[in-house]
Specification:
By secondary structure, this protein is mainly alpha-helical. The protein is built from 12 helices and no strands.
């Protein structure tokens, strides 16, 4: 009997060590990728080891950690779904025994814990640390800035705790609810994270429909469009004439000292725009036939199919919500990973769900940076400040943390939320979940209808030669992908 107990303890020990190693390796990969992404956009600074350089480096590490947690939140639900299907397909395979329910639940709990840590501690610390200078009268240095940062964090924590406590007391005005708020670990932090997840869900509701329609424009800019009723040689010739005229004006203006300022800068900006347009036209001319006539339509059809399937699944989920109570997104109460498949068509449907989740995440990020409110957070290669990077990391973390909740709420997947993700209070409200599904389906449909009607209108005007009358378009209109404001007819 003692030998059996020792064997069980050894098995548990080895299982725990194996799970820690797997979690560490997964997070290390995400951290390295996140570091490469941030350093690609971070503004290059001097190599001097001064105080500001140390502060920027610490903030960089914290932002990298936050972005890695965001990546973990994005891959969390797809990894769980595919793991469940693998365990169902190979239940007794020795090489996948490490892929068990304990590992999956541990990953969900770790992502939930680190998301709270990044949102409420690390990112505020990074921002206040960058902005701090030390209290007046104190000796300047890293210690003074750390002390000021901790004081600001303490005041911010008191403010957030007070706001959430008052909000909860107003919503649930009973003694039990107010007494439960004193339980910091078991109730208060999950309740606070539930509020953040609701805000993230609302942000996804705004960004995702816009991003789904914007994806067609983004892919249109990356790919070469088919040449239909267009003379690229004529457009390139007109671009050359414009470029030569602007170059002559720029050379002439450089001889006058009073025009060397704003006028010269404006001419250089126009010349850069003309050259960018010429490069795009030359790329379209040099593109092969399959790239112009086959790749672009296939990608557009894939985007249209993905968006249509997403809307249809949301509509079906609305019907399920009206007739079946089990369609409500509720947290998992058991650890039955690998027992039953939550996909009607097995592995094929699971793969489709995973593709749709990644598609929705990419669309939400594209839609987020397309909104006018958040345009200032758009990162630029080698020219993004640390303050902007902090804002981007916080925004992406909120979006990625709400992605599993949104996918389950919209019925993209039937996989039950695990860990603290299933303890969100608003997930049990039928009217909130139903309204969320209705708004997503309606807004996405309206965005797509508006997008395609405007695209068809532009193509008809282009085919009839009436696009030259659209003088209100900007010279670098990304929607049309061509010369606007009449291009070669613009008066120089």
């Amino acid at each position: 009997m003692e030998e059996d107990d020792v064997t069980i303890r050894e098995q548990n020990f080895h299982s725990q060590v194996r799970e820690y190693i797997i979690c560490f390796l997964l997070f290390a990969v995400l951290y390295i990728v996140s570091y490469c992404i941030i350093t690609r956009y971070k503004r290059k600074s001097d190599d001097h080891e001064d105080e500001d350089a140390v502060v920027n480096r610490i903030s960089l590490y914290l932002c990298t950690f936050t972005l890695a947690v965001s990546g973990g939140a994005v891959f969390l639900l797809p990894f769980s779904i595919i793991s469940n299907e693998i365990l169902l397909s190979f239940p007794k395979n020795y090489y996948i025994q490490w892929l068990n329910g304990s590992l999956i639940h541990g990953l969900w709990n770790l992502v939930s814990l680190f998301s709270n840590l990044c949102l409420f501690v690390l990112m505020p610390f990074a921002y206040f640390f960058l902005e701090s200078e030390g209290f007046a009268g104190s000796k300047k240095g890293i210690r003074a800035r750390i002390l000021e940062t901790f004081v600001m964090l303490f005041l911010l924590a008191l403010l957030i705790l007070g706001i959430v406590w008052v909000a909860s007391a107003l919503i649930d005005n009973d003694a039990a609810s107010m007494e439960s708020l004193y339980d910091l670990w078991e109730f208060y932090l999950p309740y606070l994270y539930s509020c953040i997840s609701l805000m993230g869900g609302l942000l996804l509701l705004m960004c995702t429909p816009v991003g789904l329609s914007r994806m067609f424009t983004v892919m249109g800019q990356l790919l070469v469009k088919p040449t239909i009723l267009e003379d690229l040689d004529e457009q390139i010739y007109c671009i050359h004439l414009q470029e030569e005229a602007l170059q002559r004006r720029l050379n002439g203006s450089s001889s006058y000292t009073y025009t060397r300022g704003s006028v010269s800068h404006q001419l250089k900006k126009e010349l850069d725009n003309i050259r960018n347009q010429r490069n795009k036209l030359e790329r379209r001319k040099k593109a092969s036939g399959w790239e112009k006539n086959l790749l672009y339509p296939i990608v557009m059809l894939i985007l249209l199919a993905g968006t249509t399937i997403s809307v249809l699944m949301v509509v079906l989920n609305i019907l399920y919500l009206l007739v079946d109570e089990t369609a409500m997104p509720k947290g998992s109460t058991d650890r039955g990973i690998g027992n039953t498949s939550l996909s009607t068509f097995g592995v094929a449907q699971a793969v489709l769900e995973i593709i749709l989740m990644f598609y929705l995440m990419v669309s939400s990020v594209v839609g987020f940076y397309s909104l006018r409110v958040f345009e200032g957070l758009t990162p630029r290669k080698d020219d993004t400040t640390m303050t902007t990077i902090i804002g981007c990391c916080v925004s992406i973390l909120v979006l990625s943390s709400a992605l599993p909740v949104m996918s389950r709420t919209l019925g993209i997947t039937r996989f039950d939320l695990l860990g603290d993700f299933g303890r969100f209070n608003w997930l049990g409200n039928f009217y909130i979940v139903l309204s969320y599904n209705l708004l997503f389906a309606v807004v996405t449909t309206l965005c797509l209808v508006r997008k395609f009607t405007s695209a068809v209108r532009e193509e008809l005007l282009k085919a009839l030669g009436l696009d030259k009358l659209q003088l209100s378009n900007s010279p670098t209109d990304p929607e049309s992908g061509k010369l606007s404001a009449n291009g070669h007819q613009k008066t120089l």
